[in-house]
Design a protein that fits this description.
There is one protein chain. The protein has one domain. Strands 2-1-5-6 form a four-stranded mixed sheet, with helices on one face. It is globular and about 50 Å long. The chain contains four helices and six strands. A hairpin with a 2-residue loop joins strand 3 and strand 4. It starts with a helix and ends in a 23-residue tail after the last strand. By secondary structure, it is an alpha+beta fold.
Length: 134
């Protein structure tokens, strides 16, 4: 257990590419950067920091429900959570590359190192073929 704790707390020492690069660009294409940050640390620390960063970059509005004001994000936080969790959990940590997340005015792109598992390729995605890797 102590070895696992040491690995988790010192992740970049053993896997220097195990970080997440986030960039926010203006417009819907190009590279006019508004902000860019690199997130290091354990995987749970990276998840929390990146999730909060993405939400901080999104437009938000408010709606009143009874006595309470509720924040409404332009992209549902549950969708951000799912995409980010998938990028972290299903990436190939043997590849010499980091996770990259790019925010544009009309979309968020997640780039996670690795390929489809097993015999699956891009053409198989709509056919219902699945392959369990882990």
């Amino acid at each position: 257990m102590l070895v696992f704790y040491y690995l988790v707390k010192n992740l970049q020492k053993f896997l220097p590419e195990a970080y997440i690069q986030c960039s926010h660009f203006s417009g819907i294409k190009g590279r006019d950067a508004i902000t860019s940050r690199q997130f290091n640390g354990s995987l749970p620390e990276q998840f929390d920091a990146v999730y909060n960063f993405i939400l901080s970059q999104l437009n938000k509005s408010f709606k009143i429900e009874g006595k309470f004001r509720q924040v409404v994000y332009e992209v549902p936080p549950v969708a951000i959570r799912e995409a980010l969790m998938n990028a972290i959990l299903h990436r190939n940590y043997h590849l010499n590359s980091s996770i990259k997340i790019v925010i544009y005015n009309d979309r968020i792109e997640f780039f996670s190192p690795g390929n489809f598992p097993g015999p699956i390729n891009l053409n198989d995605l709509q056919s219902g073929i699945s392959y369990q890797r882990n």
